[in-house]
Write a structure and sequence with these properties.
By secondary structure, the chain is α/β, with parallel strands linked by helices. The chain contains eleven helices and 15 strands.
Length: 306
């Protein structure tokens, strides 16, 4: 029996964003088909600690992720992802921060590829924290970017992100700003990756045709999107039970009567079933589910254990 430990750099070297997106698409299809045993995550200390298990029935493999979250420190996310398989004695332990940012990006890549206009290329990213680089990489993998506008309350943080990504985006115009409303006004793609507790922009600030990804709000007290946008858009989510328990913007919109549960389509279902668009705006809301971590852990297990 052996236990292999995989650090952040090894994860990055082993799994490309394109590979993660392709695997994540299959994961969402399996989730929709009922192939995962996946309890809603356990939240402790008002979101300071998260425990997320998932069992993939076809492969008899399981993953448990334990996270510590503190957005006042760097890195904000620490923890471990443990992968095991019933037929093997070996285990894999991976850095949870790298897995989390990569798998969240991959889910956004799947949704953007499905929902965004084929020619979309102007991305506005709101929030330049730890999740931000993989948001950009994922969108760029499915919709090559002609322009990236980074919005953050800290100009230094926005510039640091742009400088980090510049070598990966040699043909992309790179812009930073403090003005979220102006930045989304002609965007074709928007990614929200913040810890906001109120909407980042009004619906009126957006163009009539846009795809919005919202990943930051993962507790009922957090919100990134206005009710009016959700009421006027095709809304795709990662998993209904998790969204109803944890997504502040969805909970708020439901309680306000802006939307109903019938307006929410899980991504795995949207990948296979035709859906009727509600206008030209689309939204993908994710709070993150354990299946996504299993997908990355399974990719790493195949590379490091097999």
């Amino acid at each position: 029996m052996k236990t292999i430990t995989v650090g952040p750099d090894e994860i990055r070297e082993a799994v490309s964003m394109r590979e993660a997106i392709d695997a994540m698409r299959l994961g969402f299809l399996d989730l929709a088909a009922g192939k995962f045993e996946m309890p809603t995550r356990t939240v402790l200390g008002d979101g300071q600690f998260l425990v997320m298990p998932a069992h993939h029935q076809p492969t008899a493999s399981a993953m448990v992720k334990t996270l510590s979250l503190n957005f006042e420190r760097k890195p904000a996310i620490t923890g471990t992802v443990v992968w095991s398989e019933s037929s093997r004695l070996d285990h894999l332990v991976a850095d949870a921060a790298a897995v989390t940012t990569l798998r969240t990006g991959a889910a956004v890549g799947v949704a953007t590829d499905l929902l965004a206009a084929p020619d979309a290329g102007r991305l506005t990213l709101i929030g330049a924290g730890g999740q931000a680089p993989d948001q950009v990489r994922a969108v760029h993998a499915v919709r090559p970017l002609s322009r990236l506008t980074v919005v953050d309350t800290s100009p230094q943080r926005a510039e640091a992100l742009v400088n980090l990504l510049a070598p990966e985006l040699p043909d992309t115009e790179l812009v930073t700003t403090l003005d979220a409303e102006a930045a989304v006004s002609d965007a074709e793609l928007v990614c929200c990756a913040t810890t906001a507790t109120s909407p980042l922009f009004p619906k009126s600030a957006l163009p009539t045709r846009v795809h919005v990804n919202a990943i930051g709000a993962f507790r009922p007290t957090m919100r990134e999107l206005p009710d009016e946008l959700l009421a006027d858009s095709t809304v795709v989510i990662d998993e209904l039970d998790a969204i109803l328990e944890e997504s502040g913007e969805i909970i708020h919109a439901l309680e306000a009567g802006a939307i109903t549960e019938d307006a929410l389509t899980e991504l795995g279902t949207a990948l296979t079933a035709p859906h009727s668009p509600r206008g030209d705006r689309t939204v993908f809301k994710t709070v993150g589910v354990a299946m996504q971590d299993w997908v990355l852990a399974e990719l790493l297990a195949r590379k490091f254990l097999y």
